[in-house]
């Protein structure tokens, strides 16, 4: 670990200890002021505890040379460089290396030299090679005062000067111990994580506790697929700590054959240790055809996990899988072609995209570069991000003559998760590609509509928008976004089965979200939610793979044979065309965005009831807590919202249709003139005119939403 204890130094006759005169002077100073110890590993020089220091801090060049092997007949390694950086050599070459590389660039402080160190003490930001992180260890200095690691010499000099300005001049030596791996438990699975596991730039095995919900959703999707056919081969292409693959193997057991892959050697080592920690058999496959089987300590388990060290594109090109999950650091577009190349028919591909800066329209040029899509920031930007990713997935699948059916699309604060089922055949690929269309978005009122199918150029594309902002506003009022996925984002039958799996395995965090997704897929409110599903059996079909009956909630049948499977798929496609009108409406409206100034909105649940009573389909959405998914036009949406809003200065009036202040109602007496003057004093002229305009019989103009 690059540490030399004081006893070891003394045994090697090294002159690396502080003179007694300095120790006596420091002991006198510390008697007046108590020793401050900011860390348990940082020891003051004046203490009688055995003092250790890093080997890069020495007084003389000869002390560095003596740290190497003193036998003259053998080559000597450099004590401050790893073997892969500087191989062992003879004494004359080692002397030049230590003098030129380490000693000349050292930083001096009170007779000590802090030499540059190349040992694995200070991780640096990883390089992106093929969008996969390959971290390395960088050169650095060890501070003699606070034991910090500094990369540059000028920064180290400034660091020492800051200590001197603060009066911190006491030399403190730190014992560099091997970092202890923390053990984290999630869903009855134990995993070891490296230090700085929550910072991807500082660790080889990244572990994010905030992605627990993401892992639970993927597990539920895999559990549903495992009910269809057993066993299934599943791949975690970016294992990191291996937490996801371990959860698959530990809970689903013989139903799955798990393969965990990572291109980083340290990550593969951590994955192997985590398999042993969970008493799993490990089958190592570092290269194709070279395998090694090892068994974890403790009680043996019949489950076996295959651990591979390859590039993600390579392993997906070489082997076929039923379930593939992609979770790279950033975008997933570089791995989509490989994922759809060998995925089996009716298999599932799930991908997690964490490049939310580009997907959420904060870096629009990056979205254009990665996804080939033009976007702007809108009120429905999260659903826009999900449709961008699905469009990229659809194009990648179509290039391999495969179509997709979207089972699940979730966009939350930290990630965008998309789960699709793969359907082989050029006809299904064509049908999926036809659902990629452009979107016309009005920048004034936020109204939106997908462009009509066809290649003919329209004379006035503004006519497709339901609003009349182009006629009442100057200039160009709309933009064209896309290309985007225009089809459905959810499959109700699949989501209901995922909810059953979440209840069965006790995944509490995923259950509320899955209930919201089922309601959103059916475009119903939560009070109408039922775990048994609607009576219509056709709505429970997923391209003919599953058929749900009314008496069993999770029954399914496996499509035996390719020819029969194709017939079932064709039959399901016909039923899907008949049910196309029952799909959930595209996009949603934010209630706060379209609220009326000076008016109190009704409660969100009551507003949903008002829209439902008006004859529209309505539901809440997981994309936005204040969003409403409905098939009502924006003009009708605003009309209902205005009708049941109350002025902010009318105290005591219940929610309901707005009435004019001071207006004569049926059965009421005409107020006196004095009362009318008092009401005129309460309501300023501007506010009164705004209320009168709001409650007029004419519908609310759509072009006023820009206020």
UniProtKB/TrEMBL annotation:
Region Disordered: start-end pairs: 1-49, 672-707
Protein name: tRNA (guanine(27)-N(2))-dimethyltransferase
Family: Belongs to the class I-like SAM-binding methyltransferase superfamily. Trm1 family.
GO terms of biological process kind: tRNA N2-guanine methylation
Primary site of residence: nucleus
Bias (Basic and acidic residues): 26-39
Source organism of this protein record: Neopipo cinnamomea
Record's catalysed reaction(s): guanosine(27) in tRNA(Tyr) + 2 S-adenosyl-L-methionine = N(2)-dimethylguanosine(27) in tRNA(Tyr) + 2 S-adenosyl-L-homocysteine + 2 H(+)
GO MF, one annotated term: tRNA (guanine) methyltransferase activity
Keyword set, alphabetical order: Isopeptide bond, Metal-binding, Methyltransferase, Nucleus, Phosphoprotein, RNA-binding, S-adenosyl-L-methionine, Transferase, tRNA processing, tRNA-binding, Ubl conjugation, Zinc, Zinc-finger
Classification via SUPFAM superfamilies: S-adenosyl-L-methionine-dependent methyltransferases
Pfam families assigned to the protein according to its UniProt record, in alphabetical order: TRM (PF02005)
Gene Ontology annotations for the cellular component aspect, listed alphabetically: nucleolus
Compartment list: Nucleus, Nucleolus
């Amino acid at each position: 670990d690059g540490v030399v204890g004081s006893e070891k130094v003394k045994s090697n006759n090294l002159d690396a200890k502080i003179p007694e005169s300095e120790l006596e002077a420091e002991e006198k100073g510390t008697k007046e002021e108590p020793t401050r110890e900011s860390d348990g590993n940082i020891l003051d020089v004046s203490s009688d505890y055995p003092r250790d220091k890093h080997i890069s801090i020495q007084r003389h060049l000869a002390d560095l040379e003596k740290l190497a092997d003193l036998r003259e007949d053998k080559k000597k390694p450099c004590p401050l460089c790893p073997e892969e950086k500087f191989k062992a050599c003879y004494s004359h070459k080692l002397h030049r290396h230590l003098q030129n590389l380490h000693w000349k660039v050292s930083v001096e402080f009170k007779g000590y030299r802090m030499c540059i160190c190349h040992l694995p003490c200070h991780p640096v930001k990883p390089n992106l090679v093929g969008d996969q992180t390959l971290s390395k260890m960088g050169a650095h200095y060890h501070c003699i005062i606070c034991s910090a690691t500094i990369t540059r010499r000028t920064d180290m000099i400034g660091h020492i000067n800051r200590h001197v300005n603060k009066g911190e001049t006491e030399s403190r030596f730190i014992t560099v111990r091997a970092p202890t791996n923390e053990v984290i438990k999630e869903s009855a699975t134990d995993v070891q994580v490296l230090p700085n596991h929550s910072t991807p730039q500082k660790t080889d095995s990244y572990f994010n506790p905030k992605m627990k919900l993401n892992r639970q959703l993927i597990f539920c999707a895999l559990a549903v697929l495992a009910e269809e056919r057993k066993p299934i081969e599943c791949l975690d292409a970016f294992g990191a700590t291996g937490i996801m693959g371990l959860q698959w193997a530990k809970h689903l057991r013989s139903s799955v054959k798990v393969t965990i892959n990572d291109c980083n050697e340290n990550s593969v080592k951590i994955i192997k240790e985590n398999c042993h920690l969970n008493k799993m058999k490990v089958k190592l496959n570092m290269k194709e055809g070279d395998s090694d089987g090892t068994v974890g300590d403790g009680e043996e388990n019949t489950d076996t996990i295959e651990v591979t060290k390859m590039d993600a594109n390579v392993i997906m090109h070489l082997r076929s899988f039923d379930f593939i999950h992609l979770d790279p650091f950033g975008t997933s577009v570089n791995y989509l072609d490989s994922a759809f190349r060998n995925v089996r028919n009716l298999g599932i591909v799930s991908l997690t995209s964490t490049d939310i800066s580009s997907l959420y329209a904060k870096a629009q040029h990056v979205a254009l570069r990665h996804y080939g899509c033009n976007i702007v920031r809108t009120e429905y930007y999260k659903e826009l991000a999900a449709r961008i990713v699905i469009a990229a997935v659809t194009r990648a699948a179509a290039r391999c003559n495969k179509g997709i059916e979207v089972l699940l699309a979730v966009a939350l604060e930290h990630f965008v998760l998309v789960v699709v089922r793969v359907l082989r055949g050029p006809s299904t690929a064509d049908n999926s590609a036809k659902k990629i269309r452009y979107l016309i978005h009005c920048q004034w009122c936020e109204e939106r509509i997908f462009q009509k199918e066809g290649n003919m150029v329209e004379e006035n594309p503004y006519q497709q928008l339901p609003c009349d902002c182009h006629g009442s506003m100057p200039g160009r009022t709309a933009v064209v976004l896309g290309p985007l996925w225009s089809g459905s984002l959810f499959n109700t039958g699949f989501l209901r089965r995922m909810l059953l799996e979440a209840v069965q395995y006790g995944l509490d965090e995923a259950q509320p979200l899955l209930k919201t997704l089922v309601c959103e897929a059916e475009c119903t409110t939560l009070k109408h939610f039922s775990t048994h599903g609607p009576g219509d059996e056709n709505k429970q079909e997923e391209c003919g793979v599953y058929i749900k009956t009314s008496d069993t909630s999770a029954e399914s049948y496996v499509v035996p044979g390719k020819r029969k499977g194709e017939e079932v798929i064709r039959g399901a496609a016909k039923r899907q065309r008949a049910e196309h009108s029952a799909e959930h409406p595209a996009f949603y409206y934010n209630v706060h965005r379209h609220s009326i100034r000076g008016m109190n909105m009704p409660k969100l649940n009551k507003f949903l009831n008002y829209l439902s009573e008006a004859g529209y389909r309505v539901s809440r959405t997981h994309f936005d807590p204040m969003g409403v998914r409905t098939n009502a036009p924006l003009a009708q949406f605003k009309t209902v919202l205005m009708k049941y809003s109350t002025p902010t200065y009318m105290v005591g009036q219940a929610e309901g249709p707005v009435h004019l202040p001071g207006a004569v109602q049926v059965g009421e007496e005409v107020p006196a003139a004095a009362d009318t003057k008092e009401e005129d004093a309460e309501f300023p002229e501007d506010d009164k005119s705004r209320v009168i305009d709001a409650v007029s019989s004419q519908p609310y103009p759509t072009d006023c939403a820009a206020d």
